[in-house]
């Protein structure tokens, strides 16, 4: 599974990353977690704002920090669909 966290490293971006890592640990899922901080790379991902979360190429959220339980549901869905690298 590939997880991308987009943002410049602000408090909200760090909170999103923490929630993602905790959710992965609680679900005992393996994932490649990539932080994208460069403005050009973020723009290339076609998101409307940061922080943003992309799982296996699918934009899950942008412009807010989702709760860990919401992230866990997205991760479960991607794992059931046989996300790459899982």
Description of the molecule:
By secondary structure, the protein is an alpha+beta fold. It has one domain (2-80): 3-Layer(aba) Sandwich (Glutaredoxin). The protein has three helices and four strands. The chain has helices spanning 11-27, 39-44, 68-80, and strands at residues 2-6, 32-36, 52-55, 58-62. Strands 2-1-3-4 form a four-stranded mixed sheet. Helix 1 packs across helix 3. Residues 1-75 form the Thioredoxin-like fold domain. This is Redox-active disulfide protein 2. InterPro entries: Thioredoxin-like_fold, Thioredoxin-like_sf, THIRX-like_proc.
Describe, in short, the structure shown:
By secondary structure, this protein is an alpha+beta fold. Helices cover 42% and strands 22% of the residues.
Summary keywords:
four-stranded mixed β-sheet, globular, 86 residues
Largest sheet: 4 strands, mixed
**Domain tally:** 1
Order of helices and strands: EHEHEEH
- At the fourth level of CATH, the homologous superfamily is Glutaredoxin
Strand content: 15-25%
Map the helices and strands.
Elements (H helix, E strand, L loop, with lengths): L1 E5 L4 H17 L4 E5 L2 H6 L7 E4 L2 E5 L5 H13 L6
Parallel strand pairs: 1-2
Antiparallel strand pairs: 1-3, 3-4
């Amino acid at each position: 599974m590939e997880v991308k966290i987009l943002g410049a490293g602000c408090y909200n971006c760090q909170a999103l990353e923490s929630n993602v890592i905790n959710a992965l640990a609680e679900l005992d899922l393996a994932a490649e977690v990539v932080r994208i901080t460069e403005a050009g790379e973020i723009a290339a991902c076609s998101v409307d704002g940061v922080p943003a979360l992309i799982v296996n190429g699918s934009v899950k959220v942008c412009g807010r920090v989702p709760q860990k339980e919401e992230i866990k549901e997205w991760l479960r869905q991607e794992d059931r669909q046989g996300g790459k690298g899982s």
